[in-house]
Design goal:
With 235 residues, this protein is of the alpha/beta class. It has 8 helices and 5 strands, in the order H-H-E-H-E-H-H-E-H-E-H-E-H.
Length: 235
Amino acid sequence: MPSSGRFRLLTSRGPLRPLLLGLALLTLGWLAGLAAFASRLDRAPAAPEGRRTQAIVVLTGGSERLAVGFDLLAADKADKLFISGVYRGVDVRELLRMGRQVPAELECCIVLGHDAADTEGNALETARWMRTEGFTSLRLVTANYHMPRSLVEFRRALPEAEIVAHPVAPPNVRLDHWYFWPGTAELIVSEYTKFLLASLRAILLGPRESPPEGEAPGPAETPPPGPMAAPSAEG
């Protein structure tokens, strides 16, 4: 449709005018929110300093997150490290070898969660483990672009806990001028949309109870393409 035709639709007094104006305002609001979301993502890796928590929780999806989690545990930043979203059959020693860590030094304090298949599942699986341990504070390790949605899900599943965000900056995600990089732009748009949906669900439904032990807290897992962990942990 020629631009003059679209303009006439917006300026007409017909029944379509309120609908078109509403869609235009929603689009502008979504774009403004997207720009704000991208601008607030942490560009630099979080410093390992800061207060000590009872647990470190790593969400699978990138090898750099595991390395950060192992480094934090080695630096005595928590009593235990919980890795959520690991495929069944993968054990602690295998993950430590992948992270180039000495098993004897850290193996005692690492727990794997095998039930989560998405971010909401990560939060529910972690909540169940935290309550079993009697913990009330955790340091959450995940990618910078994934942190806002993760915090929404974790605060919904663990409203009583203190959560310290520890974002990791993946080297292949270019947040500066992200709109010029198609892969990063697609990732940011997708993550922003999921963040909005998670926030809306949290507002409408409130806190989420963890399922009983043995019941998967997320959708059914898909077959693993690799040896380590569920790539859908950010779904």
